[in-house]
Amino acid sequence: MNDRLWKECQEFHGHACGGLAIGFRAAETAAELLGFDLERAEDEELVCVAESDMCGLDCIQWMLACTVGKGNLILRPRGKTAFSFFDRRTGKGVRLVLRPFDRDRPKEEVIAEILAKPYGELFEIKEPGFEVPEKARLFDNVVCCKCGESVREDMVRLQKGRPYCLDCFPRYDRGWM
Prior knowledge:
Elements: H1 3-13, H2 18-34, E1 46-50, H3 57-64, E2 73-75, E3 82-87, E4 93-98, H4 107-116, H5 119-122, E5 123-126, E6 141-143, E7 150-152, E8 156-159, E9 162-165
Parallel strand pairs: 1-2
Antiparallel strand pairs: 1-3, 3-4, 4-5, 6-7, 8-9
């Protein structure tokens, strides 16, 4: 374990917790399995698709330079502690799924166990169930006809040819969504 990186992740996140330790180990494991240096990726060559918004994502941002802003940290909410990592250079991918463990103990014990466990005991290692996401795209903006705010064109809904942002678009789910 890289003590310096663990300390930096705690400083970035604001505290140590089990979720942060899980993300730390996921970043370490992905870097090892995909052959990445833990001193941060250059651009979008490494991609992480996370299935839960959890504390550990801060480690993935800090250690691997996967960020929402660059488009190489993607949230795919499924409520699972699982991460799919892809190397755009090689096309190789790996999915890490946290194995169940006893969390009903003092926080320090849980963190110590997560940081010490071999990654094969901590995560089930699988192939991702989807292809590597495309690189981030640039979109034009349009102005919402109701609120007057600028919105990315792929996030606009049209009604009678008039553009509405998602917040202003009149809902039409008829009770089935």
